[in-house]
Amino acid sequence: MLKDIHIQNYRGIKDLKIKDFKRINLLVGDNNSGKTSVLEAIGFGANYDFSCALAFEDFRESGKLSMIKNLQDSKIWNDFEYLFFERDLEKSFKIKSDFIENEEPKTIELKVSFSKEAGNFSEIQTTNRERILIDKNNFNTLIAEYLENSSNKAVLGFSRDGTYNFSSNLCRLFPLSLISSTPAKSSELIELMKKVAQENGEKFFSEIAQKIDPKIKGIKTAGDTILADIGKISVPLKYMGDGLTSVLNILLRMRSNSRNGILLIDEIENGLYWKTQKILWRAVIAAAKESNAQIIATTHSRDTIKALSEVYEEEKSVLGEDEIRLFQLYKNDKNFSETLDSNTIKGMIKNNYELR
Fold first, then answer.
1. What is the DSSP letter of 120?
2. Which of helix, strand or coil describes residue 277?
3. Rounded CA gap, 229 and 233, in Å?
């Protein structure tokens, strides 16, 4: 589970520290405060597969985080440049993440830089046993270095000519899943639903669906379709509203891709009617406990914050004391954050303070 993160020179973030993440976390702030960039930075720190994580522009546009297929594509390299604060390629961006894994602390430090040394290839030693060849033409190679607990190391290199190099003695740290602000694709939901159906998860989702829409008797898959049983007939889930699809998407990823890991959600309130929000949070709290997942989400909605606060007070026995956090992000001349615990959130809502 992520505990603290320190981000430097990443996108619009010059320097930002966020401390004391808990089981369920919300990031709030103005549109330019860097909420989505923080989610991305967390993803970088928790996932050693940097070749996948670098496709965040595709994540922002389509909601899908996929492997980079063509390193010779000029758009990919333009996207790389936007990862750096003020597009200043002279300065590396750095992300330091502190985790707790099996009750043991673990620190992951990531440094990403463009190479500008002359010459064709050079060797970078990663351990006593492993070396990696990196093409070092002027700003033609992107180098990502992971350091675990100041010892184990992974190095990755991406070159404009299509060369990809990797050397590592690390394993992926946590199962990681991301949900963007764009609607989920039916094909992805179907695959996830089939996966959890093998683990008898359909009953859990059917119970949640009934709370959202009492007409629904159950949720099931049939071929390449997710169906809602409404009694005499079954209809495709998409006809039951965006809210149900959004809730199902979040819970499916928690039960499958994020088990014992981290789920990152951009704009968690998207597609949800305000009355559905309490149902969502009850389900999220139950699923977080069952799947041992950590949730970190952004939101613009006061209703979302209020619903989480109220449900947590009612369901505190499920997760335990002091297991939610709200991080208010600010940006003026510099980036900074304010950390609010459950009691502070409850008090600020009661007194109508601005929270979003």
1. S
2. helix
3. 6
Structure tokens at 127: 């351990």
Residue pair 66/58 in contact (Cβ under 8 Å)? The answer is yes
Q: Are 26 and 328 in contact (CB under 8 A)?
A: no
- CA–CA dist 207, 218 (Å, integer): 7
Q: Looking at the predicted structure, is the pLDDT value of residue 220 above 80? A: yes
HSE-up of residue 117 (Cα within 13 Å, Cβ side):
12
Contacts of 258 by beta carbon, 8 Å cutoff, 6+ apart: 175, 176, 177, 291, 293
Quick one: what percent of the chain has pLDDT higher than 70? 79
Sorted by where each starts, the structural domains of the chain and their CATH numbers stand as: 48-168 (no CATH), 176-350 (3.40.50.300)
185: DSSP letter: P
Task: Quote the tokens at residue 315.
Answer: 């369901």
* Residue 314 pLDDT exceeds 90: yes
8 A C-beta contact, residue 355 and residue 36: no
Q: CA 272 to CA 213: how far, in whole Å?
A: 13
Question: For the whole model, what pTM was predicted?
Answer: 0.86
